[in-house]
Amino acid sequence: MITYSQGCYLGVLGGMGPMAGAAFALRLAALTPADVDQQHIPTLLRNDPRIPDRSSAYMAGGENPLPYMVEGVRFLEQAGAQLIAIPCNTAHLWFDQIAASTRLPVLHIIQAVIEDLRRLGLPKGRIGLMGTAATLKLGLYQRHLEAQGYECIVPDDDEVERYCMGSIRAVKGNQLEDAFAPAAECIARLKARGADAVVLGCTELPLAVPHALRPSLGVTLTDSIDALARAAIAHYLEEQAQEQVAA
Amino acid sequence: MITYSQGCYLGVLGGMGPMAGAAFALRLAALTPADVDQQHIPTLLRNDPRIPDRSSAYMAGGENPLPYMVEGVRFLEQAGAQLIAIPCNTAHLWFDQIAASTRLPVLHIIQAVIEDLRRLGLPKGRIGLMGTAATLKLGLYQRHLEAQGYECIVPDDDEVERYCMGSIRAVKGNQLEDAFAPAAECIARLKARGADAVVLGCTELPLAVPHALRPSLGVTLTDSIDALARAAIAHYLEEQAQEQVAA
Question: Isomerase as a keyword (chains A, B) (predicted)?
């Protein structure tokens, strides 16, 4: 249980996309141990969808989103945030630059997913990856997972375009009913290749694959929105425990 | 379709409760006509659950939430909001004082619900009400609905406590699985008494009654979260139309 006496916002750099930012805030509330409103984590969600597309910047020479993201984090810092969460996997291609632009701690979504794999009983194993073409092409997950003893199974370029990006674009275009089938096909293919778990490594993908349908897919899934929410909650619980020791 | 070129946040005074604030941001994104991230409404959600309980203040002499709400609206104004939405029905007992504290327009959730009833083909009729004991006791919905030609059907005190507050407390305590049955019982009773539609007039209630289960309840429902999101979207679309006429 978490209680607060003063300004200590979780600052959320959202809008990438806006539904993922909102879903993060919702899952944060759902996963927080709380009996009444006042025990939830005070959150400031800046859900600004005008940040230039992260994938286009890396893959097609589009406008650089970094200055917009740095401006957003500084806005949250000035508004009273004490911790930053960024519910967008592709944005983590710029993680080091974003983290260097603020004095606040910034949660790392990939590390949160790895902690979630451990929570799910997978301290090692073969992990199937789903995400944007940019996230997968630039090895964002592969680098962190392999450094921590995992093996990665990555869809080929055609599968990424058809199943991952197809599903992600449907969520971003508010066509949720078209988002499930391509995501489920990708999960089935990764499972058939021996994945012990599949990472929903783009924050649109948890919206494409509703919680209620996940047990039917027959493989462990880790959800980058939920993993980031769990990491934020753990940070607040730990801080509170330290305050109690100090008091 | 909505496009933006400069700072024009929808400011959301959330946290009452935090799941309702987040659900509002999610439904706002889901109901906005948009093909890509950049066409969504830039939103700043201050999901601060430390605002004292609205019902306790009115019903049991608890701490007054008004100074906290005024402070929240001023925060959003300073942060660049151009319009305020408050996804909490009971908070609207203080609507006039909140609106008087800011130069920004503030959407009224009850008026948004009445516009939603008209959208649903009910320009008049008998409306069953659900909400907190404070909202119902103080006639928040009754006053507005009756002034606009509707007739109200209100649960008795025991039903409000058992079915409305029972469901609302389950949502606030993160026990969503316990929230549906009491809400559904109340909806059935209001329908049996002749309601043409039932208002989910507390922002926890739409979370208790998932969209997927609503058709099975056999009566028109209006959802105060969705109604408020539609009102915000309409405001932005109208403003954009005016800008295009002016250009």
Answer: yes
Nearest-CB residue to B25 (from A4, A25, A42): A25
Model confidence at A7: pLDDT above 60: no
**Does any domain span residue B1?**
no
Q: Is the pLDDT of residue B5 over 50?
A: no
- Average pLDDT (A130-158) is 97
Residue B4 scores a pLDDT above 60:
no
pLDDT of residue A72: 96
Mapped onto helix, strand or coil, the DSSP state of residue B87 is coil
Q: Are A104 and A98 in contact (CB under 8 A)?
A: no
Is B83 in contact with B232 (CB distance < 8 Å)? yes
Residue B177 at interface with chain A, using a CB cutoff of 8 Å = no
Task: With respect to residue B87, please indicate whether it lies within any of the assigned structural domains.
Answer: yes
* CATH code of A52's domain: 3.40.50.1860
pLDDT tens per residue across span B6-31:
558 999 999 999 999 999 999 999 99
Assess whether A80 and A56 both reside in one domain: yes
Residue A32: list chain B partners with CB under 8 A. 174
Closest CA relative to residue A52, chosen from A170, A162, A134: A134
Which residue of chain B has the CA closest to A15? B37
Q: Based on the fold, state whether residues B209 and B238 are members of the same structural domain.
A: no
Q: Within this chain, do residues B207 and B138 fall inside the same structural domain, yes or no? A: yes
Q: CA–CA separation, A141 vs A113, rounded Å?
A: 9
A44: contact with B, CB 8 A cutoff: yes
Residues A233 and A200 in one domain: no
Over residues B179-229, the pLDDT tens digits come to 999 999 999 999 999 999 999 999 999 999 999 899 999 999 999 999 999
Is there a contact between B174 and A34 if contact means CB atoms under 8 Å apart?
Answer: yes
For residue B234, how far is the Cα from the chain centroid?
15
Q: Does residue A3 lie in a domain region? A: no
Domains held by chain A: number:
2
CA-nearest residue to A76 within chain B is B79
Kindly state whether residues B19 and B81 are assigned to the same domain.
yes
A48 in contact with chain B, both atoms CB, cutoff 8 A:
yes
A218: left (phi over 0), alpha (psi -120 to 50) or beta: left
Where is B47: in which H helix or E strand?
A: strand B43-47
Q: Tell me whether A15 touches chain B (CB under 8 Å).
A: yes
Give domain status of residue B2, yes or no: no
Domain containing B90 equals 9-108+227-246
Is residue A56 scored above 80 in pLDDT? yes
